[in-house]
Automatic annotation (TrEMBL):
Name of the featured protein: non-specific serine/threonine protein kinase
Positions of ATP binding: 122
Entry's family note: Belongs to the protein kinase superfamily. STE Ser/Thr protein kinase family. COT1 subfamily.
Reactions this protein catalyses: L-threonyl-[protein] + ATP = O-phospho-L-threonyl-[protein] + ADP + H(+); L-seryl-[protein] + ATP = O-phospho-L-seryl-[protein] + ADP + H(+)
Pfam families: Pkinase
Enzyme nomenclature, EC number: 2.7.11.1
Protein kinase domain: residues covered: 93-399
Top-rank taxon, per record: Eukaryota
Domain AGC-kinase C-terminal: 400-470
Chain segments carrying region Disordered: 425-450
UniProt entry keywords in alphabetical sequence: ATP-binding, Kinase, Nucleotide-binding, Phosphoprotein, Serine/threonine-protein kinase, Transferase
UniProt xrefs under InterPro entries: AGC-kinase_C, Kinase-like_dom_sf, Prot_kinase_dom, Protein_kinase_ATP_BS, Rho-assoc_Ser/Thr_Kinase, Ser/Thr_kinase_AS
GO molecular function: ATP binding; protein serine/threonine kinase activity
Length: 470
């Protein structure tokens, strides 16, 4: 039969597809892309390990140990393949303590039953993710952490799921977060601020190099490891230019009503319902910090460190993270964020009017370089320091003498006083209930999850093979 006798295929008309069809097409593309990307990466890594082994075996120094090395490498590869086939599940871990609770889930300190290693296990409830339309957030965090292998970012080891929850197994950073240190010490010297700011610069640079914008840089998301060095966490609001994550979150916040709108008065004034934050009123500052920390775990969020362009339906890029760093440097040196107010709506309005609301108190002595750096970061996008790359930040006078390549070899200003590998004294766990919370479910029978509890999370599973597994 002649090929020309076949009827031509029907014309494709994607514009006629429904919303669900377009969404499923996009999800299938992402799942297939992720599957083959991981497969190719693993094949290349195994090939590189084989080449490295063959190179070592050619050395005369290992002539008598060739069979031993070859056999040992074969066992390691077998363990690697077994690791890929092993199914992760909640029963593989024993809970030590709950160390954090959020609006959509919780974080527990767990120990792996098989080898006794300690991790932080983040649990997110599927029904909450679906009902609150948070699927883009969980996908963004999973993608960012899976692609990162930086020493400045909390390491994600594996993700798995059951019928009601999503799980992210991450490294445990026992030093708590930067907000806890700010609550304890209230204010930092310029040297200590310079140290933490330099490490945060390295962390932001690492995620920018992967093509991600964090969009939620704040002290609560800056964790401290066992040595007191920082690790960037919580990528739930991150955005990749290669994937279409939701960006309407901040615009919704700005539009939320407030009962205090009638009292705003002149929006160009620095006293827009401001808190009376002064050096002589540190008790009020810490009380504000504690209430702000509670807000961080609510559905409202914390707006104090958000760049103004995120509130508008306009383009933005990597420079929004440098605005957030500028606000953190200000808080470390002054004692409170530059746009702090008693309610989120007033903070939003102070941020969008930053030209008139940013000021430095007279009773806090700051160097010229620190003030200049803050003003260059808390600035319009077209003039913000960092818009042309991280080098212009590292070369600023505030960081004179800092070697950004050796920071993790320097002793940190605050080393957590830990007594064991499961010490949680740096976390505010006293007020957290330690009982197991039942996961809310829309699935009905847990043995037969409905499609809406399964389909949105296809491709969520991730496994990172570490040398420690061998």
């Amino acid at each position: 039969m002649n090929v020309s006798e076949f009827a031509s295929p029907p014309e494709k008309r994607p514009e006629s597809y429904g919303r669900n069809a377009r969404y499923n097409q996009k999800r299938c593309f992402q799942v297939a892309q992720g599957f083959f990307k991981d497969a190719v990466r693993r094949a290349r890594e195994r090939n590189d390990r084989l080449k490295e082994l063959e190179r070592r075996l050619e050395s005369p120094e290992v002539l008598l140990r060739r069979e031993q090395l070859w056999g040992h490498s074969g066992k390691l590869e077998a363990r690697y393949l077994r690791f890929l086939r092993t199914k992760e599940q909640l029963s593989n871990y024993s809970v030590v303590k709950t160390i954090g609770k959020g609006y959509f889930g919780e974080v527990k300190l767990v120990r792996k039953i098989q080898d006794g290693r300690v991790y932080a296990l983040k649990r997110l409830f599927k029904s909450e993710m679906i009902s609150k339309e948070q699927l883009p957030r969980v996908r963004a965090e999973r993608d960012a952490l899976a692609e990162s292998d930086s020493e400045w970012v909390t390491k994600l080891f594996t993700t798995f799921q059951d019928n009601t929850s999503l799980y992210m197994l991450m490294e445990f950073c026992p030093g708590g977060d930067l907000m806890a240190i700010l609550i304890k010490f209230q204010i930092f010297s310029e040297d200590i601020t310079r140290f933490y700011a330099a490490e945060i610069v390295n962390a932001i640079e690492a995620i920018h190099n992967l093509g991600f914008i964090h969009r939620d840089i704040k002290p609560d998301n800056i964790l401290l490891d066992r040595g007191g060095h920082i690790k960037l966490a919580d990528f739930g609001l991150s955005k990749s230019f290669r994937k279409d994550h939701d960006s309407c979150y901040y615009q919704e916040l700005l539009q939320r009503p407030t009962s205090q709108m009638s009292r705003l008065g002149n929006r160009n004034s620095v006293n827009i319902d401001a808190i009376q934050l002064t050096v002589s009123n540190r008790a009020q500052i810490n009380e504000w910090r504690r209430s702000r920390r509670l807000m961080a775990y609510s559905s409202v969020g914390t707006p104090d460190y958000i760049a103004p362009e995120l509130f508008y339906d306009q383009g933005y890029s990597f420079e929004i993270d440098w605005w957030s760093l500028g606000t953190i440097i200000y808080e470390c040196l002054v004692g409170w964020p530059p746009f702090a107010s008693e309610n989120p709506q007033d903070t939003y309005r102070k941020i969008v009017n930053w030209q008139h609301t940013l000021f430095f108190p007279d009773d806090v002595q700051l160097s010229h370089n620190s003030v200049h750096l803050i003003r260059c970061m808390i600035n319009s996008p077209e003039h913000r320091l960092g818009r042309n790359g991280v080098a212009e930040i590292k070369n600023h006078g505030f960081f004179a003498g800092v070697d950004f390549t050796t920071l993790r070899r320097i002793r940190a200003p605050f080393e957590p006083p830990l007594t064991s590998e499961v010490d949680t004294s740096c976390f505010p766990v006293d007020d957290l209930p330690q009982t197991e919370d039942p996961a809310p479910s829309l699935a009905g029978d847990d043995d037969s999850p409905t499609p809406e509890m399964f389909l949105p999370f296809i491709g969520y599973t991730f496994k990172r093979f570490e040398k420690s597994y061998s």
